[in-house]
Amino acid sequence: MKIDINFSTHRLSAKTLDRSAAGIQNEIMTMFTEPVSRHLPPSCQNFRTAEDVDIWLEAMAQTGSVLRLTEQQQAVGYLFVFPEPENGFRLGYVLAEAHWGKGFATEAMQGLVDYLSEDERAARFIAGVEPENAGSVNVLKKLGFVYSYSEQEVDYYILQSA
Length: 162
Fold this sequence. Notes:
Helix content is 30%, strand content 32%.
């Protein structure tokens, strides 16, 4: 269930990924290094070929949207949006290692929450994170997400929409 999304923050732009864009598979394989993908679901790890990426992108398109996150037209990461059946969205993100520690994750996720809050379905937002991923836990807490429950070694945080 793809949703077309396009928004900007102070430093970043996010737009629904054009899967046919030249070089997109290589960009994803290059960005999803072991340190980047270590805390992601297994389906987001070990991309070795363009076909691996295409299979993953097709699976993502069946349930949600992938957004390409850029700074000055250079890719810095990706955002993920999955509509939930109970008036909400499940959210996620990936940032290239070179962009860690610069506040991009917080800025991008805040921009995404702000954008999606305009949707009448946005009663709540859910994000899952491995407990050892302290950086992502801190991002969620900064944005007002609160711990809700754990399942299969993933902690889930919820943000109720205003």
